[in-house]
Amino acid sequence: MEAILRINDLYVSYFTNFGEVKAVNGVTLNLNPGEKLGVAGESGSGKSTLALAIMRLIRPPGRIIRGAIYINGKDVTKMSERELRGVRWKQVAMVFQGAMNALNPTHRVAFQIMEAIRIHEKINKKEAFKKAINLLSLVGVDPARAKDYPFQLSGGMKQRVMIAMAIALNPSVLIADEPTTALDVVTQRKILALLKELHDRLKFSLLMISHDIDLLLHFCDSIAVMYAGQIVEQSSTKNIVQHPMHPYTAGLLKARFRSNFKEFWSIKGSPPDLISLPPGCRFRPRCDMASEECARENPELIEVKPYHFVRCLKVQDAAEN
Amino acid sequence: MLQKIDVDYNNTILDVVHLKVYFPVRKWGPFKRGYVKAVDDVSLSVEKNKIYGLIGESGSGKTTLGRAIVMLERPTDGKILFMRKNLWELKGHDLKYFRRSVQMIFQDPFAALNPLWTVFKNLSLPLFIHDITDKKEIQRLCIQALTEVKLAPHYLEKFPHELSGGERQRICIARALILKPRLIVADEPTSMIDASLKGDICKLLVELKEKYNTSYLFISHEINVAQKLSEQMLIMYLGKIVEVLTTHQAGKYLHPYSKLLMYGMDYSIPDEVILRFKGEIPSALTPPSGCRFHTRCIYATPICTTQEPPLVEVEPGHFVACFLYD
């Protein structure tokens, strides 16, 4: 099956006054048609930068250093702004982090959805409005609220409007960057149920980014775990839950608060500074299994079992023997 | 209600009696005033050496209640009693003693520390205010506080921007602890912290409680975290306490709202169950009549829309405000 979104050895850095922040460090990722792929990671693991890079929305001082992002076979990193306009929103749409702040507070919500439609499709205002109303009812917002301003809506409704806007042009890929953070627990579940329903109906591919591994386990078909700008483990959800192989993934699963919550547990230490990364394996300072060997070189991401990629020397050695 | 008739003042730190905190807002036109009823008739008593979990969604008034307890919000009606005296009538030495006895840990560790000050200065300010001026003593207490939160003494020289979120929250905890308070109000202390470090902060709070016999009011929206941590749970909805239970009764929630919060955290509960509860938390400016939860409740009956359910004791130590259990 030809992947709809292919990220090939991507490097993104922010050039700040304090040095080069290596936010994304050689990420390779494939998203198949209709798949729900989750990207898990803590803050500072580069997961949001990855999402912005796919949309080519990295702003200075950030820059895509090398690597390629293919969407439907075309490389986004080499496109001009003009070509990008045909890709952004039409082929790849995004639900941004923090629904509270992603809408323009000075425009009515229907207008904001119409705007997105009318930039890409040559239709008049009336038709666009009708389309916006349809979209709103599709995501479960009362069409009577179409002429409300964002401040009149609750957090959950704003997030629904954001989703309506994202699916307005029927994109083949939807990126959801922390779509439920800052929402209440119950509202979170409702938004997830909505995304699931829309996914079943509209058949887009979904890249879901979250720090909440529980949510991804519940929602996605497969999961990539990011740590310090790199993918450290990637496999199907079932494999990740039943046989996590990278010590970081195992730690994240043990530190869960929701399902199977028994006691408080944390991974020791804290995530590394992306300006001065530790030599060797990036997780080594926090890892219980680490030995001298781990300090020498950063392990490669290797497929140790069918569709189970792990970036850990210990696991790879064990798999070879 | 929760108010015990004969309160044991040696064991009780603080009593909240029919507390109301309303925020005035102008509502359509200059002469009509409305109130956001953030806390509406809440009573509870905080005992020595206990962790209380205060749970609710955003907009339920849990933070306002916490802030009122540390005197950051003035009650519209009702009282908070500290050593049998009304908080807002405390003066001079008594007031200073109160300030020393009740401390707060804020939600956002990135905003709660002065960025221009070193950790040492941040930590030592409460000591200065409470007349500990001997330099050696201050140094000793600061290092001791850092050790309590498992940070090395060299952190004293650092600035907040050099620290990670988890480390900053530890500094905030150290600052709250440094005066050996009797009650710490912790307002969602784990919500801004990475998933891999949350557990440590919770463990730390429990450890420190055992060591210093401090009480905590742990404010959170994660019902299962609070359940693990605390001895008594208070569930709040739109300014009212709807359910109170002790931890060994935990898991046996009776109020539909508590159940909903529990379902929300548990992914093994199918989405359909949650979707049956319609809508979101209404505005506290115009709370629904009768039981405030009736607009979302799947068990609502006609009586729920007209009458407000009282908080009744269904079994010892377990109070519910719901007509289902009346």
Explain what the structure shows.
The complex is a heterodimer of chains A (321) and B (326). With 321 residues, chain A is of the alpha/beta class. Chain A has one domain (5-91, 171-320): P-loop containing nucleotide triphosphate hydrolases (Rossmann fold, 3-Layer(aba) Sandwich), CATH 3.40.50. In chain A, 34% of the residues lie in helices and 24% in strands. Chain A is built from 12 helices and 12 strands. In chain A, the strands form 2 sheets. An 8-stranded mixed beta sheet of chain A has the order 6-7-8-3-9-10-12-11, with helices on both faces. Chain A has a 4-stranded antiparallel beta sheet with strand order 2-1-4-5, with helices on one face. In chain A, β11 (302-305) and β12 (308-310) form a beta hairpin. In chain A, α4 (109-120) packs across α5, α5 (125-138) packs across α6 and α6 (155-166) packs parallel to α7. The longest helix of chain A has 18 residues, at 185-202. Chain A starts with a strand and ends with a helix. Chain B has one domain: 3-Layer(aba) Sandwich (Rossmann fold). In chain B, 31% of the residues lie in helices and 24% in strands. In chain B, the strands form 2 sheets. An 8-stranded mixed beta sheet of chain B has the order 6-7-8-3-9-10-12-11, with helices on both faces. A 4-stranded antiparallel beta sheet of chain B has the order 2-1-4-5. By secondary structure, chain B is of the alpha/beta class. Residues 1-7 of chain B have low confidence and may be disordered. The two termini of chain B are 14 Å apart.
